[in-house]
């Protein structure tokens, strides 16, 4: 009797077949979006869309988008991610229109922004929606002036001295460059953004702050799932109340530092002091949205962004220099020209005389940009002036950094590490939207200096 109840009857089979048929028709209708509009597109797979190579572990997402970029010609092409159509822009002219000229229609990134799910991430400058984003951005812009950075230079020198002593102690030993860069940046951003000494160069045991930095960015299945949802499934973030990162400890450390500064009046000329000044300046004004929660969120955002991106940059730079001794020799000659002996002080100003070092870093950022792509959300229907194609409201737009940075149209022998390609500087490449490690337009990285002279 029970076995008979488990066997589907004719009606159940018909209903099940209809449901499968309806799902098939619906998925095919979604996946025909670009075909119906005459746009070339990457063939999608069920659920994974155009990201099968990423889901299967065959390709890192940035390199996958680069592969797709090189697969197509023309100014743009379409892809699908979890059933949603995305437009990937190949033309630098269109990139410039979207990120600069017509920014008002593409002012928000596509990342999930839900303060109820994650108040730290939801208040982050990187993710905030307009107009709140513009309000916070304007307040924070003055933090990243040359004058403010120069005030923190003594803190940077302290960290550099610790690094030098550590390296001297391990002379003629094999050193993990990525770990070395990670320790350096942990101490540097801890000093500047949290006002503490994290002592990462202590041999053993690993300090708690350093361990938290390692753990908070450790990649595991759940964290990868959360990151994917924040990037491509924002509704699921709100539904499941997903937190992007566990920032409980960092929040606690910042609040302790903040409490100490407020009680004692202690000043260190670091980002903590600058954030306190911003909060106090706007505390009793109509623009009082920059409260303590926003302060903590920005501090954590700058810390994570500065720690991970810059440690990667330092690591990759040292790696490329080790693989290209001719570049290393040229850089050493420049350093000894600017600092001929130990009596020459290391100052904020004379560091800026290292032109070849700037070229080396620029080339490293071309080869290893901070992020895999730029993303913007189309606010309302938008017609691309160059082609007449209409991007419909709500359509996400992506720009592959790997695609543009390795395009031989803009960079001769793009696979070659060649700092000389930046001998004339990179302002012309920024203007042409062919060099995008810091993004482009009003939503570019706030830490990017707009007055770089090369």
From TrEMBL:
<keyword id="KW-0812">Transmembrane</keyword>
<dbReference type="GO" id="GO:0004497">
    <property type="term" value="F:monooxygenase activity"/>
</dbReference>
<keyword id="KW-0492">Microsome</keyword>
<protein>
    <recommendedName>
        <fullName>Cytochrome P450</fullName>
    </recommendedName>
</protein>
<keyword id="KW-1133">Transmembrane helix</keyword>
<feature type="transmembrane region" description="Helical">
    <location>
        <begin position="6"/>
        <end position="27"/>
    </location>
</feature>
<dbReference type="GO" id="GO:0020037">
    <property type="term" value="F:heme binding"/>
</dbReference>
<keyword id="KW-0408">Iron</keyword>
<dbReference type="InterPro" id="IPR001128">
    <property type="entry name" value="Cyt_P450"/>
</dbReference>
<dbReference type="InterPro" id="IPR017972">
    <property type="entry name" value="Cyt_P450_CS"/>
</dbReference>
<dbReference type="GO" id="GO:0005506">
    <property type="term" value="F:iron ion binding"/>
</dbReference>
<keyword id="KW-0560">Oxidoreductase</keyword>
<keyword id="KW-0349">Heme</keyword>
<comment type="similarity">
    <text>Belongs to the cytochrome P450 family.</text>
</comment>
<dbReference type="InterPro" id="IPR050476">
    <property type="entry name" value="Insect_CytP450_Detox"/>
</dbReference>
<dbReference type="InterPro" id="IPR002401">
    <property type="entry name" value="Cyt_P450_E_grp-I"/>
</dbReference>
<keyword id="KW-0256">Endoplasmic reticulum</keyword>
<dbReference type="Pfam" id="PF00067">
    <property type="entry name" value="p450"/>
</dbReference>
<dbReference type="GO" id="GO:0005789">
    <property type="term" value="C:endoplasmic reticulum membrane"/>
</dbReference>
<keyword id="KW-0479">Metal-binding</keyword>
<dbReference type="GO" id="GO:0016705">
    <property type="term" value="F:oxidoreductase activity, acting on paired donors, with incorporation or reduction of molecular oxygen"/>
</dbReference>
<feature type="binding site" description="axial binding residue">
    <location>
        <position position="445"/>
    </location>
    <ligand>
        <name>heme</name>
    </ligand>
</feature>
<keyword id="KW-0503">Monooxygenase</keyword>
<dbReference type="InterPro" id="IPR036396">
    <property type="entry name" value="Cyt_P450_sf"/>
</dbReference>
<keyword id="KW-0472">Membrane</keyword>
């Amino acid at each position: 009797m029970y076995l008979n109840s488990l066997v589907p009857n004719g009606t159940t089979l018909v209903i099940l077949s209809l449901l499968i048929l309806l799902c098939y028709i619906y998925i095919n209708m979604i996946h025909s979006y670009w075909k119906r509009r005459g746009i070339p597109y990457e063939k999608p797979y069920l659920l994974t869309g155009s990201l099968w190579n990423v889901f299967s572990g065959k390709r890192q997402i940035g390199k996958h988008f680069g592969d797709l970029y090189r697969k197509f010609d023309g100014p743009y092409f379409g892809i699908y991610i979890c059933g949603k159509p995305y437009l990937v822009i190949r033309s630098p002219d269109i990139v410039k229109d979207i990120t600069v000229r017509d920014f008002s229609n593409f002012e928000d990134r596509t990342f999930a922004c839900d303060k109820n799910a994650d108040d730290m991430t939801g208040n982050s400058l990187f993710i905030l929606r307009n107009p709140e984003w513009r309000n916070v951005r304007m307040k924070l812009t003055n933090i990243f002036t040359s004058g403010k950075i120069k005030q923190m230079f003594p803190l940077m020198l302290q960290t550099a001295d610790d690094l030098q002593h550590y390296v001297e102690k391990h002379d003629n030993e094999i050193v993990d460059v990525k770990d070395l860069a990670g320790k350096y940046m942990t101490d540097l951003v801890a000093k500047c953004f949290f006002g503490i000494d994290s002592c990462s160069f202590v041999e053993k045991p690993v300090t708690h702050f350093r361990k938290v930095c390692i753990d908070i960015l450790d990649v595991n299945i759940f964290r990868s799932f959360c990151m994917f949802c924040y990037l491509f499934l924002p509704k699921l973030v709100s539904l499941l109340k997903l937190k992007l990162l566990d920032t409980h400890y960092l929040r606690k450390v910042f609040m302790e530092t903040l409490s100490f500064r407020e009680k004692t009046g202690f000043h260190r000329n670091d980002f903590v002091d600058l954030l306190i000044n911003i909060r106090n300046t706007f505390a009793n004004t109509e623009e009082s949205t920059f409260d303590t929660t926003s302060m903590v969120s920005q501090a954590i955002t700058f810390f994570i962004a500065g720690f991970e991106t810059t440690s990667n940059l330092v690591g990759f730079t040292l790696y490329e220099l080790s693989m290209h001794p001719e570049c290393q020799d040229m850089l050493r000659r420049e350093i000894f020209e600017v600092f001929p002996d130990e009596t020459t002080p290391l100052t904020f100003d004379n560091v800026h005389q290292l032109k070849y070092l700037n070229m080396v870093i620029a080339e490293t950022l071309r080869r290893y940009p901070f992020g895999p792509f730029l993303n913007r959300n189309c606010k309302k229907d938008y017609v691309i002036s160059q082609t007449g194609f209409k991007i419909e409201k709500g359509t996400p737009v992506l720009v592959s950094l790997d695609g543009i940075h390795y395009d031989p149209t803009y960079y001769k022998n793009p696979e070659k590490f060649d700092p000389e390609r930046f001998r004339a500087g990179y302002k012309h490449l920024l203007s042409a939207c062919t060099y995008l490690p810091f993004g482009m337009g009003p939503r570019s990285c706030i830490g990017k200096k707009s007055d770089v002279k090369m």
